[in-house]
Amino acid sequence: MNKVYNFCAGPAMLPVEVMRQAQAELLDWQGQGCSVMELSHRSKAFIQVAQQAEADLRELLAIPDNYKVLFTHGGGRGQFSAVPLNLSGKNGQADYLISGSWSSAAVDEAKRYLLPSVVAQSRWQDDRLVVPEQSQWKLNPKAAFLHYCPNETVDGVEMTNVPEVDSVPLVADMSSNILSRPVDVSRFGLIYAGAQKNIGPSGLSVVIVREDLLGRARNETPSILDYQVLADNDSMFNTPPTYAWYLAGLVFQWLKDQGGVRAMEKRNAEKAALLYGYIDSSDFYQNRIHKDFRSRMNVPFQLANPELDKAFLEQSEQAGLKALAGHRSVGGMRASLYNAMPIEGVQALVDFMMDFEKRMG
Ligand code: PMP
C-alpha cells in the first residue's frame, strides 16, 4: 500500500499505533477469548477500560475534581440540544456567539427550547474573516450560559482567548480542537466534543461538566440527554458506545506516550505554520481568515483559479492525499491537521501543492 495521508475533517485519521493495537486485540482482548466490543458494559473488565479512559482524559486535561466526565452518544449535535435542555431552566435566556457554521447550527437547534441571544457574529474586515473582540459583544448577565465554538471546523476559525464571563457558565463546543493544546478547564461550566476528530471514532461524545450545573434539566429532557442521570450512572444509564470508548482510551494512552497536550500544542503549531507559511508565500493559493483566528486544526484554502479545483482534488487523491475537498457548504479545499496527522503528511501536502502550482500556475 502506498503511503496515504487522510486530511478528512471527521471522522478523521487515528494514530496508526492505536489502529495496530486495536487490530492485534480485535479477536481476543486481554485473554478474554472475545473482543472488547463483545463484552457487557457492566462487566468488570469493561468497567476497567472505561475508568482508565476517564482517568487518562482527566490527567491529560487536568480536569478538576468538581467536574464530571460523561461518555455519551449523539455527537456534537446531540449536545446542541442537551445544553439548552440541561442548563437553561424553563424560560431561560442563553447567549450564543456565532463564529462560523457550527455555532450557527447550535443556535438553530437551541431555538427549539429557548430564544437564543446572539452576542456577536464573525464578519469580513478588509477581506479577512474576524471574530469581534469581546468588548463588542452584547452579553446578558442573566444568561443561563454563554455558548461558543473555539474551533469552527468548516470555516477554519479558531479562538485562542477564552471569553471572560464572570458568573455566567461558559459552554464550549470543542469537537474539533479538544486535546490539541492545554486548556484551563476551570474557566468553563461545560465542555463537549464529538469524538471523531481528536478523540476516536464517531459514535461517542465526551462532556465535561461542572458539578453545580447538574440536576437542572427541564422535566421533558430525554433521560439519555440528562447530565444528572448520566453522571449518576457513570455514563451507563443505557448501553454506551463501548468500542468507541475503548478506542478513545487507546488514543488517550497514545497522547500520554507522546508527551500529552503540551507536546501536541507544539507539534500542531509546527504543522499549521508549515502549511499557512506556504499558502501565504504563494499567489496561487489563499486563506482568507485573519491571522489571529486561523485554525491550527482545519485549514481551508482556495485556488486563485477555481476552475482548477477539480484537477487539484483528483491529482491530490492520486498522490495519496485524501479528502482535501472543502465542506460542501463552502467549497474550495480544506486540510484537517488533527493530533494524529504527522508533520510528514503536511510536508507531503505542501510538496504536492508546490508541484501542482508549478505545473498548472
Ligand atoms: N460541532 C463541531 C465543531 C463540529 O465540527 C461538528 C461536526 N463536524 C459538530 C459540532 C457536529 O457533530 P456531529 O456530526 O457529531 O453531530
TrEMBL record:
GO biological process, one term: L-serine biosynthetic process
Keywords in alphabetical order: Amino-acid biosynthesis, Aminotransferase, Cytoplasm, Pyridoxal phosphate, Pyridoxine biosynthesis, Serine biosynthesis, Transferase
Compartments it resides in: Cytoplasm
EC number: 2.6.1.52
TM stretches of this protein: none
Keyword Transferase: yes
Enzymatic reactions: 4-(phosphooxy)-L-threonine + 2-oxoglutarate = (R)-3-hydroxy-2-oxo-4-phosphooxybutanoate + L-glutamate; O-phospho-L-serine + 2-oxoglutarate = 3-phosphooxypyruvate + L-glutamate
Note describing how the cofactor binds: Binds 1 pyridoxal phosphate per subunit.
SUPFAM superfamilies to which the protein is assigned, alphabetical: PLP-dependent transferases
Pathway participation: Cofactor biosynthesis; pyridoxine 5'-phosphate biosynthesis; pyridoxine 5'-phosphate from D-erythrose 4-phosphate: step 3/5; Amino-acid biosynthesis; L-serine biosynthesis; L-serine from 3-phospho-D-glycerate: step 2/3
UniProt-annotated binding residues for pyridoxal 5'-phosphate: G76, R77, W102, T153, D173, Q196, N238, T239
Residue stretches making up the Aminotransferase class V domain: 4-349
Principal place of residence: cytoplasm
Signal peptide: none
Family named by the database record: Belongs to the class-V pyridoxal-phosphate-dependent aminotransferase family. SerC subfamily.
NCBIfam families: PRK05355.1 (NF003764), serC_1 (TIGR01364)
Function (record text): Catalyzes the reversible conversion of 3-phosphohydroxypyruvate to phosphoserine and of 3-hydroxy-2-oxo-4-phosphonooxybutanoate to phosphohydroxythreonine.
Name assigned to this protein: Phosphoserine aminotransferase
Gene it is expressed from: serC
